[in-house]
Specification:
With about 190 residues, the chain is mainly alpha-helical. It has 7 helices and 2 strands, in the order ααααααβαβ. It has a two-stranded antiparallel sheet. It holds the Pfam family HTH_24.
Length: about 190
Amino acid sequence: MEDGQYSSQHVADIHFVYGLCDGNAVLAVREYAQRFPNRPTLNARTFVRIHLRLSENGIRRPANESTRFVLPRDEEAILRLITEDPGLSVRWIANRLNLSRWSVWRVLKREGLHPFHFRRTQDLIEPDHARRSVFCSWINRRVRQNPSFLKRIMWTDEATFTRSGYVNHRKHLCCTKIHMLCDQAHFSINLP
């Protein structure tokens, strides 16, 4: 077993016996086996490792034990706020309820919620199919006229154009499933 797999009580007992034996790990193995016959036998390195870990890091709870608990009323308040407005930020909820952001995150994670950063996109509508056909025909004619025509086009997806000219990358919604937020009509722009 590794050091982190022992309960707090086992670690305390191991460290106590190691100290009782004045830091003699071989003697501590024998003493520990006599005092705790129903526990797994340990080797000398385990005693030394646990002593060094406690000396360097101090006493810490295992990673799977939560050091902070969220009261049920706070948990209900968090979920109520998210249900009422899924667009609220974790920071805003934490400030409003006087909790840490990590407590809010833990509740959201436990409930299977996660931030969903939405991006506005244009949906294809009925008139778009005709426009796409016209464009494809035009491109085919140009390629037949000049086989290197496609090489002269700068293809990029680096630019994003919006109606408002501004994209808020920090806006998010908490949800379990990605869903359509709103419909948007076709939008196009001609670049010189």
